[in-house]
Amino acid sequence: MSTAAHDERVCFSDTLLDVGPEAATLCEGWNARDLAAHVVMRERRPDGAAGVLIRPLAGYTDKVQSQIAATEWTELVDTVRDGPPRWSPMRFDPLDRAANTIEFFVHHEDLRRVTEPWEPRELPGELVDDLHVALGRAVKLTARKAPAGLVLEPTDGRGTIVAKKGEPSVTVRGAVGELVMFVYGRQDHARVDLEGEPAAVEAMRNASFGV
């Protein structure tokens, strides 16, 4: 694999080793070990990952993730770095881009941004392009519960995305990576500017995004 998603996976794995298994993350209740186990389960135990979407299976998901988390730390990170098994279709570049670009970018930032001070990274152009494409595909689902219309306006040369039509409407401006963080529920850790009616802006800052 030679995608921007793959490169971000490698950076994520390096950061996991740097911060250690007990490091905090932006995912409430999860440390770095839990986050790594989540990634491995998603790619290697799809039966366990089902509970992310199907609530009655949440207990089974927690059990599988806990079992994976018990793996020795460097071995666990090596498994993250190695990626999906060889039989997985996600090893093919187009699916890797579609499934993993946002996944690894957001979780990498979950490690980076949990502790102040932090600054946004200078992202490679290929990663920005792939994030923009992936965001355009996913945002109508992630923003379906938005409390108002939502327009995403990148400040780094990519096209505007209408995430949800409606009035009143809120426009969120920022670099593509920051817009990704915002609509994936990390509003407090995204460097963006919001424009719209004050009540709608406040509601958007506290909205519950996601599937």
Polypeptide structure, described:
The protein is an alpha+beta fold and 211 residues long. The protein folds into 2 domains: 4-112, no CATH class; 139-205, 2-Layer Sandwich (Nonspecific Lipid-transfer Protein, Chain A). Helices cover 52% and strands 9% of the residues. It has 9 helices and 4 strands, in the order αααααααβββαβα. The chain has a 4-stranded mixed beta sheet. Strand 1 (149-154) and strand 2 form a beta hairpin. Helix 2 (32-44) crosses helix 5 (73-82) and helix 6 crosses helix 7. The radius of gyration is 17 Å and the shape is globular. The protein starts with a helix and ends in a 6-residue tail after the last helix.
Number of distinct beta strands: 4
Taking pLDDT < 50 over at least 5 consecutive residues as the criterion, the unreliable ranges are none
The level of helicity is 40-55%
Strand order of the largest sheet: 2-1-3-4
Judged by helices, strands and strand pairing, the structural class is alpha+beta
Key phrases:
211 residues; 2 domains; 4-stranded mixed β-sheet
Write the layout of secondary structure elements.
Elements: H1 4-19, H2 32-44, H3 46-49, H4 58-69, H5 73-82, H6 93-112, H7 125-142, E1 149-154, E2 161-164, E3 169-174, H8 176-183, E4 193-195, H9 198-205
Parallel strand pairs: 1-3
Antiparallel strand pairs: 1-2, 3-4
Short description:
This protein has 211 residues and is of the alpha+beta class. The chain contains nine helices and four strands. The chain starts with a helix and ends in a 6-residue tail after the last helix.
